[in-house]
Design a protein that fits this description.
alpha+beta, 12% strand, nucleotidyltransferase, single chain, two-stranded antiparallel ribbon, 482 residues, Beta Polymerase, domain 2, Hydrophobic Seed Protein, 4 domains
């Protein structure tokens, strides 16, 4: 099997080999090549020590990124615009920090270096000639589509607790099943999570949420208990424990009205996630859209004795904001996800409504000040449609109901793109206004009046129509002054 390795990577391998050292492509790049995917980056492992790596780099004109990772035996080399991580064969032990090794030492063989890695599919090496070095049956596990740890699962997770989150992420990205030993080992090592930094945990969660099979990884995250743990956040020389996603644990087994739902709340969430797009905001909105269901004050019972959750969208939006703020997401992501959760029920109630009802909704949204320009608001509505179609597809809705929702979603998006949010969305500029009205006129006030009239449907957002409206206003003003 021939593998496409970039020339800049080959140059480093050849340079190290010519200097008398072993050198291999290792880790995720080998896995991706075997899966027929293009690796995002290439890592090299060698029996050369850091000083020897730097010497070879200098002799061959490679750039060296100094002081980066050298405590861990890693040197970053640059060739042109490309950067490659070159690491000495090594092993390591861990202490209080559940992700960073407390001690690193060099070893002499590629087998020992590969043996310290997390999962068998990441513990293979590729030599210059295209030969695969596989001491732990990683290639076989790739073919069987199963995730296994290298050796004892407990030991791997004790060494680096982030590997438990990486397990969820790889399952989400690859859609693989997992060795049953992984879940049981995670449960036995949950106390290690407190040693992880929030930043690293959040990074893994975001990769999982955006992955192709996110529902599989999220299922393990909750079933194993990882979601219910806390990690540490350090700021201003103080450290605090931050709960990860305990709210999701409470959704498991929460029953819903069987007329509309075949799943409990958590399994409905997973089914919706399986039907969604892979954007960060939509993914998090799906995960949190029903987070308030079953809670006191929200859970009720109708006249037929069926469960209801009126108001779960409003309370859910508040909870989503609190959760994402707690996890230190950006303001942009927090605001968008909160808006999506808050509005996800409104989509369904408007499907059969008249266009004027939808228009009022969009107009109200445009005037709330949430969005700066039309494009931003329309993109939010596009994400809302993605959320709501995924949500509906995970219910007992018939195919025709889903099709009707999709058709409404397309109309909603078109109408949102036609609604101006800011005066800059109008098809007339301040300069053009200045050519029609006297210089002392307050152009900003006129633009604002035009915006309101277009939003109300009194004018269409066409340059000729807007110019005529301004000219008519100007003529009326002149007559009044006479």
């Amino acid at each position: 099997m021939k593998f496409d390795i970039p020339n800049y990577v080959k140059k480093i391998i050849v340079a190290l080999t010519n200097a008398g050292f072993e050198a291999y492509v290792v880790g995720g790049a080998v896995r991706d090549l075997l899966l027929g995917k293009e690796p995002k980056d290439f890592d090299i492992a060698t029996n050369a020590r850091p000083d020897e790596i730097k010497l070879v780099a200098q002799q061959n004109g490679f750039g060296i990124v100094r002081e980066l990772g050298q405590n861990f035996g890693v040197i970053m080399l640059t060739i042109g615009k490309n950067t490659v991580e070159v690491a000495a064969f090594r092993n390591e032990t861990y202490g209080a920090d559940a992700h960073r090794p407390a001690e690193v030492w060099y070893c002499d063989t590629v087998e020992e270096d590969l043996g310290r890695r997390d999962f068998t599919i990441n513990a293979m090496a590729l030599d210059y000639g295209g030969g695969i070095i596989d001491f732990f049956s990683g290639r076989e596990d790739l073919q069987k589509k199963i995730l296994k740890t290298v050796g004892n699962a407990d030991k791997r997770f004790e060494e680096d607790a982030l590997r438990m989150f990486r397990a969820c992420r790889f399952i989400g990205q690859l859609g693989f099943s997992y060795d049953i030993k992984i879940k049981s080992a995670i449960k036995r090592n949950l106390t290690k999570v407190e040693g992880l930094s929030l930043e690293r945990v959040r990074t893994e969660l975001n990769k999982l949420v955006c992955s192709q099979y996110a529902e599989k990884g999220m299922e393990l995250l909750v079933d194993s208990g990882l979601a219910g743990e806390s990690c540490r956040y350090r700021a201003d020389k103080t450290e605090q424990l931050i709960p990860i996603l305990p709210e999701l644990m409470k959704l498991v087994g929460v029953k819903q009205n069987s007329r509309y739902h075949q799943y409990d709340v958590w399994n409905h969430t997973l089914a919706a996630l399986a039907n969604s797009d892979r954007s960060l905001e939509v993914g998090w909105a799906i995960i949190l859209h029903d987070v308030a269901k079953g809670l006191e004050g929200i859970r009720g019972v109708n006249a037929e004795g069926e469960p209801t959750d009126f108001g779960h969208d409003v309370l859910g939006a508040k909870m989503a904001k609190n959760i994402l703020t707690r996890l230190h997401f950006s303001t942009v992501v927090i605001q968008r996800v909160t808006w999506l959760v808050k509005n996800h029920m409104r989509f369904g109630t408007n499907i059969a409504a008249k266009d004027e009802t939808t228009l009022r909704w969009i107009r109200q949204t445009a005037r709330e000040g949430m969005f700066r320009v039309t494009k931003e608001m329309a993109e939010a509505f596009k994400q809302l449609v993605a959320l709501c179609i995924a949500d509906l597809s995970a219910t007992t809705a018939h195919e025709q109901e889903v099709i009707a929702a999709q058709m409404y979603g397309k109309k909603l998006i078109i109408m949102a793109y036609e609604m101006p949010v800011h005066t800059t969305d109008l098809n007339i500029s301040g300069k053009e206004l200045g050519e029609i009205v006297p210089k002392q006129t307050d152009l900003a006030e006129i633009m604002q009046l035009l915006l309101l009239r277009v939003q109300d449907g009194e004018l269409t957002n066409e340059q000729s129509i807007l110019r005529k409206a301004v000219q008519a206003w100007h003529e009326r003003s002149r007559h009044k002054k006479r």
